[in-house]
Structures are given as C-alpha cells and as structure tokens.
Design a protein that fits this description.
A: alpha+beta, Methylamine Dehydrogenase, Chain H, six-stranded mixed β-sheet, five-stranded antiparallel β-sheet, 10 helices, 33 strands, 24% helix, B: alpha+beta, Beta-Lactamase, 3 domains, six-stranded antiparallel β-sheet, 21 strands, globular, WD40/YVTN_repeat-like_dom_sf (chain A), Putative palmitoyltransferase ZDHHC22 (chain A), transferase activity (chain A), transferase (chain A)
C-alpha cells in the first residue's frame, strides 16, 4: 500500500461487458446505470446500476445505431435515441402497451443533441435550436409538449440531483443558460457568462463541455469551470472556478481553486470535496471550500488541502471460477486515457468494463495534515469522520505525537462547537414541537445528527477513559487535559456529564491530589450533583474534609 | 515625657510590646557551665550573657516542671503581672520563646505622679501563640527546618540563619495589632465564576507546559488566592508572606501610574503590563541578576527547595516555583516575560470584567450591612468585613478593640470543645456579638441594634447566613 493515498476506487465496482464494435456502452447519470447494448439491442441489452443487485436485461429490435439510451426514474419507461430527429419509447410498466412509440422534436430542422428524464414520466429534449419539455403518457403511447423555448445551443449538461439543465449558448459558448425542472414545470433561471482566460482571437466555440461540471457541494449547486493555464495571463497554472448557482438569484463567482499545474484534468466531487485528477502526473488533489481561504473581497482563493497523491492502487478482482486457481489479481491501470469521469463521484473504464465510485479515505489524511486545527476543520465536514476524529484525539494525547495543551484546547473547542450547534438545533426543534407550533410548518425537520457530533460520552468512552487508564502520561498532563475538556464544554455552555467529573476525581484521588480536588470543588468547577456528593462522602475516610464538601453539596441540591 | 504635660486625670495607653524573643535547644549544652551553647538566638542581643542564660534556664525549668502535670500538652504560656511568655517547640528539643509586655495604662495623679497599671487580662493566649507559631513557619519557608541547618553546617550555620532571618522579621511583628485573624492565619479566596476559573486553570496548565521547569504555580488576584499548586499548609504561609510583605512593598509603583518617575524606571513594555516582583527588574539589562528567593516546602516529606518567581500584571499575580537545582537564567526570565506577560495581561482584564459583572448581578457591591469574620478550618478560607485593609504595619479594624477581644474569647471557648455550638454575647452600648461554630466553620458577627432582644439577634444572624453563606451547610 502506498503511503498517504487518500482517494480510492470502491471495492465493489459495477462490472459490465467491455465496449467493442458489437457492444456499445452508455451511462445514464440520472439513474447511475450502465447500458451494454449488443448489436443495437437485438442480441440483448444489460442494464446495471450501482445499487441494484439484479441487472435488467431485455432484447429490442435493431432499428439502427443507438445514440443514447436511458430509463425514466424508477425504470418505468425506456427512451432510445437512434436518429437526430426523434426519440423512441418503450414502456416497462406491467400491463401497459408493449409496442414502441416515437416522438419527433417539434422544432423544424433542429437536431436532437440529447434528452434527459426529469421524473418517471417527464422528459426534456435538447436540440441545437432549443429545449422541449414533454409529458409522457405511456397508456396512450404518446407525448404531450408541456413547454418549449427557442435558443441556440452548442452543448448541454444535466445535473439530476438538482434537476438543472445547463445550455451553452452564443458563438463563443460561454454564456450559460440554466433551466430548472420541478413538478411538471420548467423554469428559466438567469443566464450568466463564464469569464474566459483570454479574449478569443476568432469567433469560434471557446468553452468546451469538457471543462464544465455541475455538482452539489454543501447543499448548494455549483458550476465548476476548469480554466486552463494561458500563456498570455500570468497565472501560475490552471484553476477551477466555482460559480454558485442559486435557484432564486443570479449566478455568482465564489471560489477559485489553485491547481498550480498544467495539463489534462478531470473533476469529481466526493463528500463535498472537489477532487481534481491530473493525468500527466497520475495524481489527484482535493479542495474543501469550507476551509479558510484567501478572500479578496469577492472571491475566495483556495490552495491544496493536502499534497497531491495517486488514487490507491487497485487490483482487478479475477472473476468467477478463475479465482479458485492461483491466478493473482491484475493491477488496474489508474488514470488511464480510457477513463471517463462523471459527476459527482463516478469513474468509468469502458475498455475494462468497470464503474467505480470514488471514495475519500480519512485515515491517510491524518498524517498529511500536521496542523491539528486545520485537520479538525477538514474532518468535521466529512461524512464518515467520527472514528477518525476520535483516533486523532487519542493520538494527540499519547506519545510520540503528543500535542501541546494549546493544540488540544483548539481541537476540543472545534469539536464542542459542532456539538453545541447540534444541541441548539435539537433544543429549538423540541421547543417548537412542544409548544405546538409544528403544525402547518412543513419545513420543520428534526435536526440530523451527523458523525461530526462528538458528544461527551463518545469522548469519554473512546478517548478520555482510555487515556486516564493508560497512565503513561504524567498525572499533571492527564488532569490538564481533563480540565481543558471541561473548560471547553463550559465555554460552549454545554452541561458537563457527571462521569467526566468522576474521572477527574478518580485521577486526583489516585495521585493523592486532594487539595487540588478541594479547590476545584470550592469554585464549583465540578458542579454539584447527588452522585458527586455521594462519591465525596465515600472519600471521607481517606480525606476527612470531603465530609464538609459533600454536605455543602447536598445542601445546595 | 511629653504626654505627662497633660492635666490631672489624663491617662495614656501603652500597647503590648515585644520584650524578648529567643530560641534554644537544651540538648546542645546539657552540662553545667556550657549553658550558653543552648542559646541559638536571643533578642535583644544586647542583653548581658548571664541574664540570657538565666531566662533560658527559667523557661526550661517551667516547661520541665509543668510537663509533670500534662505530659502530652506542655505549657504554652506563662502569665505574670508585667508580661506574658509564650513557649513553642516546633521541632523536637528546639524551643522558641516570646515574651510580650502586657499593655499599660499610665494614669496621672493630681500631684503629677504617674501610676502604672498593667492590664494582665488583655492579651489573648491564642493570638500570641499563633504569632509565635507563624514566626517558625515563616522561618521554615525561607530557611528550611532547624535540623536541616544543623545537618548542613552544624550549629554555626543554624545560628547564622536565625540571626539573619529574625533580625529583620521581628521588626515586622506589630504585636499591638494582632487579633483573631492571626489565630486563623487564613487565606482570602477571590470569588470567581466557573468559566473564568477554568480559563485560569487552562492558563496555568499551559504556562507549566511551556516553562517546563516550573514545578508548582499559585495564582492570586487582588491579593486573594485563586489557585494553589502547593499543599495547603505551605500555601498558607506563602500567602501570608505575599500579602503582608511582598505585595505591599510593590504597591507604590503601581499606584504611581504610567508617566510617573517611578514607573519610568521600570522596563518599558508596550505589549503587556507584566513584571517581575522577585528577580530581575530590567530584562533589557544584560547584567540583570536573576536571583530569586528560595523557599522550602513539604518539609515533612519530600523536603523541596524551590526558587520563588513572582510575576504580576495589573492585579493578577502568579507565583512560579521551580526546583532549586535549576538556576533560572536571564534567557529563561525573558522567555517567561514574553509568554506569560501578554497572556496574563489579557487574563487579568478578563477577571476584572467578569468580577464587576458578577458583582452587579449579585448586588454585593453595596456595603455589607453586617460586620463579621468567617473562617473555615477545612480550606482555611477567611473573610472579614471588620478589617478594612491589611498593610504591612497595621491591620485596621472598624470595631472597638473590646469587641475584638470578645471575639477572641469566644474563639477560645470554641477551641475547648469539639461540638458545634453558638454563643451570643451582649456587649456594651447596644452591641451584640454572636459566635457560631458548625463542623469546621466559625462565624463571628457583630450587631449593633438598639433594644434588640435575643430572638431578634438570632433572626438577624440567620438572615446573614442565608444571604452571605447560602451555599454553605450550617447546622442550626
């Protein structure tokens, strides 16, 4: 295993028949399905999705070369484009007419560039002259035009997660027109222009769809533009420009990711991270727009979070009965030129017949980000972060990588900030529900507890109790760490659980630091509680003043 | 006698005064003719040798004689008409004796002849016994035990150390203003909210980490203790040293303000207000001496010798104690100044701000209506609204000395029994004095209410307990 590879291909890829002259392969971004169409469908179509265990296979009449093939959402209706003028449909609903039906595009002399399903029965045709939104009526085997819009289109892009279609218009192609689809309606969002790196010399298409991607990052839709290095501008390398595309207002340039290199790139978005693959060096880099960047008043500049690394080496599993033999798995060629990348996190190797999800591995990140504060900022935004964060905490408390108290305090503060946010959301939710204001408020949702919420019991179980029991650190440090955690909780006004106090008391008693304990109690740092008072009473025989301390506590209670 | 010029019937009061103070060890000169060897220290030194020997011999005899009646509790004091002697054996066979002259009233007859009247019952045994014990504790804090000195260099070294220490120390005793607070020798704790307290904890822990040779730390604000890394008994005497000797000596430059000439002599530092109260005065001076007082702690156990570094920013003072085997260098002092100075300055203003907020919330900024002294034997916490201010020379009280004496008497009564009790005394001119003892705590209240009866006084005290001591468990 090469060290520090924080990106990996998923262990269970979708395997399909390799592309070859008789087998055409298509990928549908909306359903994340791979279609293997043999001989135009006559000898079989096999559809495999990421989640489905059982592939769908069927045959269809060979009516010519298939240009595009996609199921509607829920695999209800199959749409096949064979010509540039029309799309054919085939129902997959049980007990509905099984005969194919066809829809030609409405605009005369227009060529269909492609189509997108926006629901189980709604489809959009994108032609070079505009966009046509249809309702499919499978029982009647016909389509009904809902809305259309004339506009010159160079190319289009569809983001199924946000139901937005982006059209490249104008001669240069850098004016992008988004459309939004919801509940049988099509709405036009405000168009925007992508700033090209240098004024183009001639009036030809200057913005390629290869350099544009659309993805949802931290719940917001962004258009990602890969701006190549130009010799005329004095940039140090290519960069990725992120345009925020809100539904209500106009698009705004927000972030610039500095790549500091040139060449061929591809983009993915995984776990809200922008991943930029670089083919020349066969490495990838990641960016997190939530991390602090350099803000110039309008745009935030981001540098690499981590040094560039390759995707983890991948062994192609030897399929079927061959694995019984001693055949060793074949290493997969990474960053191959036959790879095709789809949003948000899909990599397809058509020549080898694999579809992978790209994954971010957090363990290797720990050693690549020495700044623990930044590491926490990074980890807290990740989906599967809990165990990694807890292990970072354990690590910073023990040799050889023991952190300073200042660093430990920073980490605790970051964790508790997140913890407090959740507690507050939970509290205001409960309040709304209890006061009965929840009725008629569809927006009200119980706050989701993400893995980034590391509460006191997590810290106690996985970090602090283990740490105090190990006894490798000097007791001064042990107590300082416990007090630092309690300080941080107090700073965020989080009620401290009594088992943390018990841990402090246990540690102090073990080292005969009664006077210290005494002072903590005197200033109510260890808050009064019945269990605590009883614990103190039990200490009376070894430390007589505990008697008074516990009686005082019982009085206040 | 200038005062004698006054008319007839005038009287003049003379406060109690130190007559002599000596330390001896009978085992050092057991044979006849070698008596002088027993004497380790004698004040006043001018006293003729044979008188010294006589006085020491007398004390020895009294202690020896009274031991017959009470083997476990030897005599603590001897009352005579003119004076009182106090005995203390802090280490085996080492005796300290303090002789205090009783207060005197000088009256003048019509014929102008002065008549001297000794007030035999004025001095409180417990107060002066405690003063004598503190003399030893203070010596031990800066010099270690008597025995250690003998181990280090024989009787000669011990004598030198005693001479050096007590020569100065005895001048600071001020026996005329000793009272109940000297019995307690308590610690005044700074009231603080939990969050600020935790911030201070965090600060101390980080400082100990960055200045890794620091063994113990203590933190004070406004001359009141907030945190002690030392054990209670060591802190008790260090606290007394800091609040009655070190801090008052340094108060003037602080009151002088920024532009005063005194201030100008101090190293100019624009980033923070931190400065050393012990050790180097000017860090920019390459010749600056980094000499810190040495203190001895845990003398019963590990017997540690430490350098005492006291560093202060505004009202916050930190004591860093480092092992005596490490010699703090000028570089270390500069490092300390650059790390601690800025952080302590911020912390001090945080504490001040928080303190003012808390005061406003609790409404305790109003003058306390009650005059009281509170002491808790368990944590040595002491609180007095009777004493205005402690200065190195006098402790100013706001009540009549007679009332203070009643407090002392009640305290003596409390000492005699182990049970909780309450004593209510009707003093002269509408004053009531209430003493309350509950477990380890003692509370003394002075009330001045016209025509109050016992029930009303009792109610008032209950009210006080409910407001001032609401989180304390008092037995009724």
């Amino acid at each position: 295993m090469s060290r520090g590879c924080y990106l990996a291909l998923c262990a269970r890829p979708v395997q399909f028949e390799k592309a070859n002259p008789v087998n055409c392969v298509f990928f549908d971004e909306a359903n994340k399905q791979v279609f293997a169409v043999r001989s135009g469908g006559a000898t079989g179509v096999v559809v495999k999705g990421l989640e489905d265990k059982n592939p769908i296979s069927f045959r269809m009449e060979d009516k010519g070369e298939v240009k595009c093939i996609k199921f509607s959402l829920g695999n209800k209706i199959l749409a096949v484009q064979r010509t540039s003028k029309s799309v054919d449909f085939l129902n997959f609903i049980p007990d509905s007419p099984q005969l194919e039906y066809t829809q030609e595009c409405k605009t005369k002399n227009a060529n269909i560039l492609g189509f997108c399903w926006t629901s189980s029965t709604e489809i959009v045709f994108i032609t070079d002259q505009g966009i046509e939104f249809y309702q499919v009526l499978p029982e009647k085997r016909s389509l009904k035009l809902v809305k259309n819009q004339n506009i010159n289109v160079n190319w289009y892009m569809y983001c199924p997660e946000s139901s937005v279609i982006l059209l490249s218009t104008t001669v240069l192609g850098n004016v992008l027109q988004p459309f939004y689809f919801k509940g049988g309606t099509m709405s036009k969002l405000s168009k925007f222009e992508i700033e090209l790196p240098a004024a183009p010399k001639s009036s030809k298409l200057s913005l390629s769809e290869r350099d544009i991607a659309m993805a949802t990052i931290y719940g917001q839709l962004y258009v990602l533009y890969l701006r190549h290095h130009s010799r005329t501008s004095n940039s140090t390398g290519a960069e990725v420009v992120l345009y925020h595309l809100p539904r209500e207002s106009s698009c705004k340039k927000m972030h610039i990711l500095k790549l500091n290199r040139t060449g061929k790139f591809a983009l993915n978005v995984v776990d809200n991270l922008v991943v930029v693959h670089h083919q020349d060096t066969e490495t990838s880099v990641i960016f997190d727009i939530k991390l602090k960047g350099e803000f110039d008043g309008t745009v935030t500049l981001h540098q690499l979070v981590l040094p560039a690394r390759s995707i983890q080496p991948y062994q192609i599993p030897v399929a079927g009965p061959a694995s019984v033999t001693n055949q060793s798995p074949v290493p997969c060629k990474l960053y191959s030129s036959s790879w095709i990348v789809f949003q948000p996190d899909i990599i397809i190797s058509a020549s080898e017949g694999y579809l992978w999800n790209l994954e971010v591995k957090l363990e290797p990140v720990v050693n690549l980000l020495p700044d623990k504060g930044k590491l926490m900022d990074f980890l807290l935004q990740r989906k599967e972060c809990k165990m990694v964060i807890l292990s970072v905490c354990s690590q910073m408390l023990s040799e050889p990588d023991r952190g300073t108290l200042a660093v430990i305090a920073t980490v605790f503060d970051k964790l508790n900030h997140e913890y407090k946010k959740y507690l507050e959301a939970e509290q205001s939710y409960t309040m709304v529900v209890e006061t009965g204001q929840s009725r008629g408020n569809p927006l009200l949702k119980r706050p989701v507890r993400t893995q980034a919420v590391i509460d006191q019991s997590d810290m106690y179980t996985h970090v602090l109790s283990v740490f105090t029991e190990k006894k490798e650190a000097p007791h001064k440090f042990t107590i300082a760490v416990l007090m630092e955690y309690i300080r941080s909780l107090n700073q965020f006004q989080i009620a401290v659980q009594h088992y943390l106090y018990e841990l402090v008391i246990k540690t102090l008693v073990q080292h005969n630091l009664f006077y210290m304990l005494h002072q903590f109690l005197q200033y109510h740092v260890l808050s009064d509680s019945k269990p605590l008072a009883c614990l103190l009473l039990s200490l009376e025989s070894i430390y007589p003043p505990a008697h008074q301390l516990s009686l005082d506590m019982l009085k206040v209670l | 006698m200038a005062a004698a010029a006054g008319g007839a019937g005038q009287e003049k009061q003379l406060a109690p005064a130190l007559l002599s103070f000596f330390i001896y060890n009978p085992k050092l000169g057991p044979r006849e003719g070698e008596e002088e060897k027993k004497i380790l220290f004698y004040h006043p030194n001018e006293v003729e040798k044979n008188e010294k020997i006589r006085n020491v011999g007398l004390c020895e005899a009294i202690v020896q004689f009274t031991r017959t009646f009470s083997p476990s509790k030897p005599a603590k004091s001897l009352h005579t008409q003119k004076n009182r002697q106090f005995f203390n054996e802090p280490e085996e066979n080492f005796w300290m004796v303090m002789v205090v002259r009783n207060p005197i009233i000088e009256k003048y007859h019509k014929d102008g002849k002065p008549v001297i009247e000794y007030q035999e019952e004025e001095l409180l045994d417990k107060v002066y016994s405690s003063v004598l014990q503190q003399c030893y504790s203070m010596y031990k804090l800066f010099n270690g035990t008597f025995l250690k000195a003998i181990e280090d260099g024989g009787v000669r070294v011990l004598k030198e150390r005693l001479e050096k220490f007590f020569h100065r120390y005895l001048q600071t005793l001020h026996l005329q203003s000793c009272d109940l607070l000297d019995v307690f020798c308590g610690i005044s704790f700074f009231p603080l909210d939990k969050m600020t307290y935790l911030k201070i904890q965090s600060f101390i822990n980080r400082m100990e980490e960055s200045l890794n040779i620091v063994k113990y730390t203590a933190f004070l604000y406004n001359d009141q203790l907030i945190w002690s890394g030392l054990e209670q008994d060591d802190m008790r005497i260090l606290y007394k040293y800091l609040t009655t000797s070190l801090f008052p000596r340094h108060i003037e430059p602080e009151l002088a303000g920024r532009d005063s000439p005194i201030r100008a002599e101090m190293p100019g530092n624009l980033q923070h207000y931190g400065r050393f109260l012990t050790g180097p005065l000017n860090l920019n001076d390459p010749e600056a001496k980094c000499r810190f007082p040495k203190i001895f702690v845990n003398t019963d156990g590990t017997y540690e010798e430490l350098h005492l570094i006291v560093y202060k920013a505004m009202s916050a003072a930190v004591c860093f104690m480092i092992d005596a085997s490490m010699q703090p260098t000028l570089d270390f002092c500069r490092k300390l100044d650059s790390i601690v100075g800025p952080q302590l300055t911020v912390l001090a203003s945080d504490i001040c701000e928080q303190y003012n907020i808390n005061k406003r919330i609790s409404g305790s900024e109003k003058e306390p209506q009650f005059k009281f002294i509170y002491f808790n034997h368990m944590n040595l916490a002491e609180k007095s609204t009777i004493h205005m201010r402690k200065t190195p020379s006098v402790s100013l009280t706001s009540v009549h000395p007679d009332l203070m004496k009643i407090l002392g008497d009640i305290n003596s009564d409390f000492t005699r029994v182990d049970e909780d009790e309450e004593i209510i005394v009707k003093a002269m001119s509408d004053y009531w004095v209430v003493g309350k003892k509950s477990d380890q705590r003692e509370l003394y209240v002075i009330l001045n209410q016209k025509n109050a009866n016992l029930i009303e006084v009792n109610e008032e005290v209950k009210k006080l307990c409910a407001t001032q001591f609401n989180n304390i468990f008092f037995l009724d």
